[in-house]
Multifunctional fusion protein (Pedobacter ureilyticus), 987 residues
Amino acid sequence: MQGKGFIKFMAILLGIVCLYSLSFNIITYNVEKKAKEFAKGDEAKEKAYLDSMATEKVYPVLGLTYQQVKSKEINLGLDLKGGMNVTMEISLAELTKSLAGNTSDENFNRALSNAQTQMNAGGKDFITLFVSEYEKLVPNGKLADFFANQDNSAQLKATASNSEVKSYLSKEANSAIDRSFIILRSRIDGFGVVSPNMQKQEGSNRIFIEMPGIQDKERVRKLLQGSAELQFWQVYQSQEVYPILENINKTLAITVKDTVATKAAADTTAKGGKLAGLTKGATTPAAKDTSATARAAELAKTSPLINTLLQLPIYQGENGQPQLMPGAVVGYALQKDTAKVNAMLARPEIKSLVPTTLKFMWGIKPRTGTKAFELYAIKVTSLDGRPDLSGDAVANARDGYDQNNNPDVTMFMTSEGAAKWKKMTAEAAADPNNKKAIAIVLDNSVYSAPTVQNEIPNGVSSITGSFTKEDTKDLANVLKAGKLPAPAKIVSDFVVGPSLGQQAIDSGLLSFVLAFVVILAFMAFYYNKAGWVANIALLINVFFIMGVLAAFGAVLTLPGIAGIVLTIGLSVDANILIFERVREELALGKSTNVAIREGFKHAMSSILDSNITVFILGVILFVFGSGPVQGFATTLCVGIVTSLFAAVLISRLIFESMMDKKANITFDNSITRGAFKNLAFNFVGRRKLYYIISTVIIVAGIGMYFKNDGLHLGVDFKGGRTYMVKFDKQLNTEEVSKTLSANFEGEEALVKTIGTDNSLKITTPYHITDQAADADKIVESALRKGLDGLGAKYTIESSQKVTPTIASDIITSAVYAVLFSCLVMFIYILVRFKKWQYGLGAVIALFHDVLLVLSFYTILDGVLPFPLEIGQDFIAAILTVMGYTMTETVIVFDRIRERLAEAGKDDMYGEERNKLINFALNSTLSRTILTSLSVFFVLIVIFIFGGDSIRGFIFALLIGRIIGTYSSLCISTPIVIDLSNDEKSVK
């Protein structure tokens, strides 16, 4: 074996990378375990402990804090942890109308309405649709008349053509989406979500947001859908505000009760990370220093605010005495203490001490490397309490570099805004010895407070500071946010309760372990010592998969775990291919060493072809899918790459080592030795029988399709709301459906049992097209009213909403995914095997498989004790089934190609071709059956133990596995005969 040294080096290097990536999970697990031990079930104490550890260094070698380590671990998805995800859609229709000055032109507004209708029906590019619709309504109309103005004259001329206007609108639309992303991310960060996942869905006007652990969905919806408001305020200096803060502190010392003071003292202790020393068995000085605790308690009584919750910006002066640092920041507080500070400042006796011209605002994000937020004192100069300048005064902003090549932001004001900006900046820069700042405020949080150096008369400002390039890009987007509001609406959401998440973790891990044990036992039993080599490679492969996922920062979901488990099943395929070829070589009388080398050599082509086809389908799944489907595709693709490395290269190294030591290597035992020998099934001769069987099943499926009024589409494909409800007793589904329909004003309430008899899945289209802000609340109120009348206690464990717009896009993506997969497979086989009949035969088999799976779904829907819905996960299952079929088909094609090469022919015809195809099918039958059985065993284990939420998905894979095996043996390869025009003697 050549390159053994390089393979060993790569294996060790990959192992180190994986170990490093997984080490963060180990560190966070240990910290969180100590937090649980300390809290003893008290969630508030556990959170306080973890807050105290945020800036503590917990990774001894690298010196990383808990907060830094936490951000690098494998994150769990909502289905494993509980939480909420939403898909936000930026209203490009309202953006376009705003850019046109909210024109009342009838044709313009009709074009907007028509474009939105087409978008809802599955259109992709709103701007293209709008321009096209306007040109239909006004053939010679000039769009520049609506959009060109003095403020954007640099980007758009009054004489611009419609295509130039379209380009301008597209840029503004993309910019609006980017700005919305920044605003939403700032809001989520302010909400305090741990490890949020945000993604712009490329090619669309949507943003996907995943928030693990969040359950307050009404608060989230209000937070995300509120309009962004950009403001510019003058600020007080720290020296001006200190007397007010001191007066507040003295008043609080008189009025705050001792119990509150004691609690503040305990929080002060937590702030320094001292809670870590209070765990059981701790020996740190903090655990024993009761005098320090007493001093903190006394300080909290005498100074409840300053130096207890709020730290002043202090530095040591030249005389060695503490001095107030000049500037706009008046104090700092830890994130967990900001709410307490707000509560103190909101007390009636304290509000009376604060001038009406002053209001406090927090910074948008913590100071670098800490969890401390800055407090600013905003100066209110108008009688109505409005800001000096609002976001509509900003014409444009862009990030760049100053003359010293440091990142900066250039801001351009409108003509009206420039006059106000001149006055504001003149006042801020009036005192050369005490230049003041102006606060840039977004959603009542200070995003930046740059110090003004000089009066700015022309409305063009340069904002500099200790910025990174990402900071200036974000700030530029924020400055543009107030100019052209593009409302963001939630078009789909998914909420999972923590109990359901824990149940998913337990069932997912159980299925993983059991499936893994099944595979190990099967390989060890069937292939004896060689099976143990495959098992070692499999263990290494699982380690690699988890390490690579951690390195990529992947979010692990339940479909992702299913993808890993399936990868385990598929990874043995390479070893089975190799071992079966070795057994063939041994049967020819070759020595073990020669047989192993020949087995690896002859199996390599089939292994590469089969893995490449599945990898391509995984990529297609990732591109066209979203959410759980992408999670499944990610783990599948990663698993295929690591499986090739582990199953082929590492197992080869182990065999080479065993051969060097002259170890006895066996590939069978007395039970399996004669399996699959001397097989001679006439697959080609019986192909017409197989065609009839498939036709009967498909016809039956079509009949049931019409009988059932179509396929049972999930909310992914038709829109609607779905709720998973668990009751304390069994209920009649028809009675529940009737009760809920009455509460839903006659709208359908589809109720099905899922898993246990007391768990129901409720789906309804009630108010799904209602765009009102309170539509979700109306539906949930009607649901709860109906459930309350059933006479049973219940828990809503998860909910999902998908609007018809999203559903339309998902259907389009699903169709494209299947069609594109077929096209790619045809091209790949055509290139690899040089015969169009092989490519077309494989594609026909793929369509055959899809039709059979759909037919079984229509026939068995309502018969099985779980819903068979057509949704995104079903599409993932279909594409995976297609991958199975392609894997097995190309392996047979590889054997045909090999046999032709041995005979020195390009092709065979007539009866000779029939014999060749039968030979190829029979000679690879052992591999086909063994691989199918191994994957089938894995799927059965996941089906039984993997949880209710993926049972329908796994069922699709189960029947798909059976259909795929049947199709590859009886349809795809035999059909090549019927596609050959030169076939003369087929019987």
In short: Confidence is low (pLDDT under 50) at residues 258-290, 983-987. The radius of gyration is 33 Å.
